[in-house]
Design goal:
199 residues; alpha/beta; Nucleotidyltransferase, domain 5; five-stranded mixed sheet; 15% strand; RNA binding; RNase_HII/HIII; RNase_HII/HIII_dom
Length: 199
């Protein structure tokens, strides 16, 4: 059973991101403030849920949340600042989109780079422990998946509707055959035997 809050008296925002390990597309982060003592029968870590369940729960999160923000950092910015910093940027910007300033951020994972004075707690596998982080994981994943499906229509040969930009065999085979698109991350190791970055 996921916990509704970490503290007793602070407004908390759960934060998580999606798309860190992908070869193409943005990294997407979400920040979510849920009502105190919030309950939801199905809300869980997005990786434990089917796509249809995630989309169903997303509607509830958007309806029930006190506030939420979703931020995209594209592949060009990822190449400029590196993926770890891009993940922090996406989370920071998602927090800035909230219409209420949280008293505590619950960050999924073991590292975070704050850009303001809001206290934070890093929680390993937090999306399986706290409802607000699970809610953020669902928003980040569903928004990113939809975006990858949309840009996948322009480049069907990379199978983004299925792999969402992750380094699957069909995705890597397509890179070998067709090269890269404007959505690929040039600083990533796009092919296992890659000796130099693509132009």
């Amino acid at each position: 059973m996921l916990l509704s809050s970490y503290s007793q008296d602070k407004i908390e925002a759960g934060c998580d991101e999606a798309g860190r390990g992908c070869l193409a597309g943005p990294v997407v982060a979400a920040a979510v403030i849920l009502p105190f003592d919030y309950k939801h029968k199905l809300l869980n870590d997005s990786k434990q849920l089917s796509e249809s369940k995630r989309l169903l729960i997303r509607k509830d999160i958007e309806k029930d949340a006190i506030s939420y923000g979703v931020c995209f950092v594209d592949n060009h910015e990822i190449d400029q600042v590196n993926i770890l910093n891009a993940s922090y940027l996406a989370m920071n910007r998602a927090v800035d989109m909230l219409n209420k300033t949280p008293g505590l951020l619950l960050i999924d994972g073991n590292r975070y780079k704050p850009h303001n004075d809001i206290p934070y707690e890093c929680i390993i596998k937090g999306d399986g422990k706290y409802l607000s982080i699970a809610a953020a994981s669902i928003l980040a994943k569903t928004y990113r998946d939809e975006y990858m499906e949309e840009i996948g229509l322009k480049h069907p040969e990379y199978s983004w509707s299925k792999n969402k930009g992750y380094p699957t065999v069909p995705h890597r085979d397509a890179i070998k055959q067709y090269g890269i698109t404007e959505f690929h991350r040039k600083t990533f190791r796009l092919l296992p035997n890659q000796l130099e970055l693509f132009d």
